[in-house]
From TrEMBL:
The keyword Transcription does not apply. This is Uncharacterized protein. Gene3D superfamilies: Tetratricopeptide repeat domain, Toxin ADP-ribosyltransferase, Chain A, domain 1. The keyword Repeat applies. It comes from the Eukaryota. Keywords: Repeat, TPR repeat. TPR repeats lie at residues 545-578, 721-754, 763-796. It comes from Adineta steineri. InterPro entries: TPR-like_helical_dom_sf (IPR011990), TPR_rpt (IPR019734). Coiled coil: none annotated.
Length: 819
């Protein structure tokens, strides 16, 4: 059954001036209603209201030391990721001239982001701000040792190369600093070493993914990429697929003549050998393929679709269940952060997104693990994965022996697993200095948790063709540009006589445009789809209900509230004529209507609508569920909050808090939102101790959600920006302005990389930064931020839009007050 669009823009300007991002206030209302929580992670760390109240006495001393400081009690813990950058610190850059330009160009063949510095302090400040990057540092020998040792402590630094014309006499001091690789007199030597390090880092640090502390759940990145592979394997490919993949490789390795020859060989002779033969023959195939799978580079995965299908199909053909226990091994390196995370979930689930290569030769795998931790400055732990294949446990992923089918034949007794192989973690034990063995056991293919989640994702992306399924999946992953590309191809190849399918494709295109705030284009496609639905849909009532709700959400986002209410009412009318048990649709429609009435300050109308929705659910005992009721309670609580009826709002927020504690404790963002709201209520009542306690709990849950979402960054960076904003808002409430500013700036950086410059969320982030600068007394910077918010809003919103007028008001009032 089709779901209503989630593209609603509930941007709220709160009493403290904080402006939320476009999906900031949707998480609690929307996500639970369609059981999206079934793919989220779980950790039973929620403190109940009674526990929070009990924390107040010891918190008094904490407040005296932290409430006015730059940081809160709970720190962000940011996982390791592979965004590479080279930083070159040399006080004599101006003397290098042409030689320096040559050296920089050489290094750009590996990493194109290179920053030169002459001032060590400026360099250190710059590095500390790059919290999500892996940095290779080149320093000249004339830089003081104390500076190098100070920079060595910064976690973002992966390794350090000391560049000099002549090797100094005193070199023993670097042995105390593991990140320092050594002294180098030739840039080509540094080039080769950085190339080795980046390849090792990509191969090892992102080969595996860890499930949550909840031992029986998978994160959404696993589920989405699993379904993506399924969709690609169902699709039919023609001769152009290989041409497109070949062209991709040519462009990627444009400056590598040897690899270009290998690519020609692959293009001309692909049919002469098996996919496994090609996969094991050329590094350009397995390196780029597994990198794309690990980092979820959707465009690249789509280009490689036909080869992924062929390779997976051959592994399935060769797969033979074992008749006795077999042990295979894999040796590699893991970052300290990744390994520490692994140790906390012994007994939990572990999965590999890539095609996983193992060997039956323990010594071969062990030597690879040892080499990973033996390199000075590698910052890695050597891991020997010992994998048991038990004939009594069916596997959810096929594997195949590569004897006589690999390019290398049986040189390493290799066994290759297909993508998304899931294991349960057994014993973890030390077997040497910086060397550990991790026992893994294949998860059964009849695992109920795995089956339920895969089936749920399959239903979410159901479609008549592989291309339609792919476009739906990409839309749900917020990969709008990729979804648009796939849909445009589908529309070009659509059969004019197959109008119903054409209507659904127009509808999807409208949802993509709506999600990107391109409202005129969204209405254009919605109109084309609705015309087709009215005459050719086999489920006209449900289709029209969905599309009218989507059209209403566009008018709500553009603040044309009368039109929005008209379309929401039409959506309700069609919903009544469709499946009466499709209450999940009713939740979105009623919530949209209530939101419009709330924004228009028609609070009694909003409450009446929500009460009607609540009554409908309570009458339907079969469908009564806590997630849905929590949505209704939160919507009512938000209305009471805006009315200033804080006691009524607090009672409802407490009900929701108890529901989360009992029924779905894994929704960390939702929990954090509720605690944040309760904290705001106590703050309005000047009960600062209680407010502080709830803000601390809110922060704790946001940080857990942050670490979960961070692993999915390539998939959904916009959600990560939203989460930064949410954590920043809590810090603002706690008067931790420096931390709030840092987080808002990080959110801004992500948004600027992810969206067009005109995106409205950029404007709201600039406005929030302006609020922080104002609170810090930095009035010049505050005015600049407010003006930037107004400038972006003018480019992306109509001049009568509420947010544009708010930004304009900020600028005017600020100029009158401080200038």
């Amino acid at each position: 059954m089709k779901k209503l669009s989630s593209t609603q823009s509930n941007r709220n300007v709160q009493a403290d001036g904080h402006i939320s991002l476009s999906t900031y206030s949707q998480d609690v209302r929307r996500k639970v209603s369609f059981a999206e929580q079934s793919t989220s992670l779980s950790m039973n760390t929620i403190a109940g209201d009674e526990q929070i109240e009990q924390m107040l006495d010891p918190l008094e001393s904490v407040i005296n030391t932290t409430s006015n400081s730059e940081h809160s009690t709970f720190r962000l813990q940011i996982p390791f990721m592979s965004n590479f950058r080279i930083i070159w610190l040399d006080s004599n850059f101006t003397k290098l001239n042409a030689d320096f330009e040559y050296m920089i160009n050489q290094l750009r063949h590996i990493i194109d982001v290179i920053n030169p510095f002459t001032d060590p302090e400026v360099c250190k400040d710059f590095i500390r701000k790059k919290i999500d990057e892996t940095i290779f540092l080149i320093v000249s020998n004339d830089v003081e040792q104390s500076i190098i040792c100070d920079i060595h402590q910064i976690s973002q630094i992966h390794c350090i190369f000391i560049f000099c014309q002549n090797k100094p006499k005193k070199t023993r001091w670097i042995k105390n600093w593991k990140k320092i690789i050594g002294f180098f007199m030739c840039i080509n030597t540094i080039y080769e070493r950085i190339k080795q390090e980046t390849e090792r880092h990509c191969r090892d640090s992102r080969t595996t993914s860890i499930s949550s502390v909840d031992l029986n759940r998978f994160d959404t990145s696993f589920m989405y990429t699993l379904i993506l592979r399924e969709i690609l394997s169902e699709m039919n490919y023609d001769v152009t697929a290989k041409k497109q993949l070949t062209q991709f490789y040519r462009e990627y390795y444009y400056n590598d003549p040897w690899t270009q020859k290998d690519i020609d060989n692959f293009n001309q002779n692909y049919e002469l050998h098996t996919p496994i033969w090609w996969y094991t023959r050329f590094p350009f195939l397995y390196e780029r393929l597994n990198e794309a799978l690990r980092l979820q580079k959707t465009k690249t995965i789509i280009k490689m679709g036909f080869f992924i299908k062929d390779l997976h199909d051959q592994i399935e053909q060769l797969y033979r269940p074992t008749t006795e226990k077999i042990t295979v091994y894999r040796g590699q390196g893991l970052s300290y952060a990744h390994f520490n995370q692994l140790r906390t979930i012994e007994g939990g689930l572990y999965f590999f997104n890539c095609f996983l290569s193992t060997t039956a030769d323990r010594q071969v795998a062990l030597s690879r693990a040892e080499s990973s931790c033996s390199i000075e400055g590698s910052g890695q732990i050597g891991i020997l994965f010992q994998i048991t294949l038990d004939p009594t446990v069916g596997t959810a992923a096929p594997f195949a022996s590569l004897n006589n089918v690999s390019f290398y034949f049986d040189r390493e007794q290799e066994i290759l697993f297909s993508t998304h192989t899931v294991f349960r973690i057994g014993e973890i034990k030390s077997i040497g200095d910086y060397l550990w063995q991790v026992d893994l056991l294949l998860v059964s293919d009849d695992d109920d948790d795995l089956i339920k989640r895969i089936e749920y994702m399959r239903n979410m992306t159901s479609g008549t063709t592989g291309w339609d399924r792919l476009s739906k999946l990409l839309l749900k992953m917020d990969k709008f540009e990729e979804a648009k590309e796939v849909l445009e191809v589908s529309l070009e190849n659509s059969n004019d006589n197959d109008l119903e399918r054409l209507g659904h494709r127009y509808h999807l295109m409208g949802q993509i445009e709506n999600s990107q705030h391109n409202y005129k284009q969204a209405l254009f496609f919605y109109d084309k789809a609705s015309q087709i639905y009215q005459t050719h849909s086999s489920s006209i009532h449900l289709d029209m209900s969905v599309i009218y709700n989507d059209i209403g959400s566009v008018y709500k986002n553009t603040e044309e509230y009368t039109k929005a209410l008209e379309y929401f009412q039409m959506a309700l009318d069609y919903q009544d004529k469709s499946n009466p048990l499709a209450h999940s649709n009713l939740v979105l429609i009623y919530n949209n209507m209530a939101e419009v009435h709330k924004v228009m300050k028609q609070y009694s109308d909003a409450l009446n609508i929500l009460e009607k929705l609540s009554t409908t659910y309570k009458r339907s005992s079969v469908l009564y569920d806590y997630p849905t009721m929590s949505i209704i309670y939160i919507s009512k609580a938000e209305v009471y909050f805006d009315m200033g009826s804080y006691s009524e709002a607090l009672e409802l927020f407490r009900k929701v808090s108890n529901m989360y504690k009992c029924c779905h404790p894994q929704n960390f963002i939702d929990i954090a939102n509720v605690y944040n709201r309760i904290g705001e209520i106590y703050q309005r009542w000047d009960k600062h101790l209680k407010a502080f306690a709830y803000y601390e709990q809110s922060l704790k849950n946001y940080h857990i959600a942050f670490n979960i979402l961070f692993k999915q960054l390539p998939m959904n960076v916009s959600n990560l920006a939203i989460l930064y904003s949410k954590i920043a808002h809590v810090h603002t409430n706690m008067n931790n302005y420096s931390m709030a500013l840092t987080l808002y700036q990080k959110s801004l950086e992500i948004l600027e990389r992810s969206f067009q410059f005109k995106h409205p969320d950029l404007a709201s982030t600039y406005a929030n930064i302006g609020h922080i600068y104002k609170n810090m007394g930095k009035h010049d910077k505050a005015l600049i931020s407010y003006r930037q918010a107004m400038k972006i809003a003018r480019q992306s919103l109509p001049e009568n839009h509420r947010h544009f007028l708010i930004y304009q008001k900020y600028v005017t009032e600020f100029q009158q007050t401080f200038q």
